[in-house]
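Appendix B, Record 12. Input sequence as logged:
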Amino acid sequence: MEMEVELERLKRLVFELLLTTENRTTDFLELITGETMIPCVLKQVTATQAPLLAVKEGPRDAVLRESLLRAEKSGLVVSQNIAVMYPDFIPLPIHLKLAQKKEGIGKIMRDLNIRSTRDILNFGWKKPGHTTDLNGNPYSVTFADNMAVPYKQYTITFEEFATPGLHLLEYFNPRMLEGKEVQAGRTRDLF
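Logged structural output:
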C-alpha cells in the first residue's frame, strides 16, 4: 500500500513538471514515456484575421493546427494539441516545415535548433466536459474517459521577434504513465 501511494505521488510530480516546464514538451514526453513521439496533424487551415490571443495586438493572418502526439511503440495518444501559428513571427525554416504537416512543432524546433522562449499562460487539470479550445469554446479530447485531463497553455516567442509566433494549448493523456515504472531518468514497462 505504501509503495502505491509513493508511486502516485511520483506520477503527480511528473505531471506537475510537465505542466510547468518551459522546455520543449515533446522532449519531456519522450523522456517520461521512453518512446519517440509521432505527430498526426488532424487539421491545419489558414485563418485570416485571427486574433493574436497572447498579446493585445490587432488581428493577424494565422494558421490553426490541431494535432495528436502518439507514442511510437505503444500507439498511445499522449497529447492532443491546438496551436495558432502566426507566420509573421515564425522563422521561415520553421514555417516551411510546419506547412508540410509531417512533423511536430517540438521536433522541428529541436532539429533546427532555433532559440525561443516560452511563456506559460495557464495550466492545471480540467474535467473532460470542461475542456475548451483557445477561444474558450467547448472542445473534445480523445482521452475524455478520464476523471480529469492535465493541460498547459503557453506561447513561444522566437529569438528574432518580440511577438509570440505560436500560441499552444496541449491536453495530456493522464494514463500515459500507467504500467510504467519511473527509474533514474527513464521508464520501463511493468509486468
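The radius of gyration is 17 Å.
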